[in-house]
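P.,

For your records, the input lines for the assembly:
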Amino acid sequence: EAQVTQNPRYLITVTGKKLTVTCSQNMNHEYMSWYRQDPGLGLRQIYYSMNVEVTDKGDVPEGYKVSRKEKRNFPLILESPSPNQTSLYFCASSQHGSNQPQHFGDGTRLSIL
Amino acid sequence: GQNIDQPTEMTATEGAIVQINCTYQTSGFNGLFWYQQHAGEAPTFLSYNVLDGLEEKGRFSSFLSRSKGYSYLLLKELQMKDSASYLCAVRDRDNQGGKLIFGQGTELSVKP
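Structure tokens returned:
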């Protein structure tokens, strides 16, 4: 089944404790992206990747890192999480092409205490 | 700047028709998407418009006017399961095929 898989789905942790949210897609998509979704603010792009070893900042990259060593994986790293990073996070992937829709993972709800 | 506006909430009756509007101001334009998102779930793709006019897909249609920076999503024969958030998103030409800018979403409640 074609899908984007995120792990974990839920995480409660404390300020300053490094964490990684994994994202994997099995559709051979070139493009992958991370978003955060907050009430009243909608989906905001954190980082995106047009292909392996190519990553770029989105609208809200501060406090996050990403890597794209393989085509299928695009982990999101919070080196020193803070409470303002408490949010619902979505990973998405698509083929290249302006008309290609993004396929979203089921989301990861992060709570940073 | 980049700006996409949608109404925050709408309410409609089962069996009726509802139109959800979206206006945008972006530095470039390379297509507009509509997504549906049920509470606690991932957004799912509904439609794509890049040329002016109406695209129809079953009960859902989407319209685009590039000169007015305007789109709408039309839902016919509303069903209770259509209660969801509807997200308008514009692809900005400045990042070829890469960047999607989302509106805040319109929360649609369908009542019996």
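Two observations worth noting. The mean pLDDT of chain B is 92. Chain B touches chain A at residues 30-31, 33, 40-45, 48, 50, 87, 89, 91, 95-105 (CB under 8 Å).

Regards
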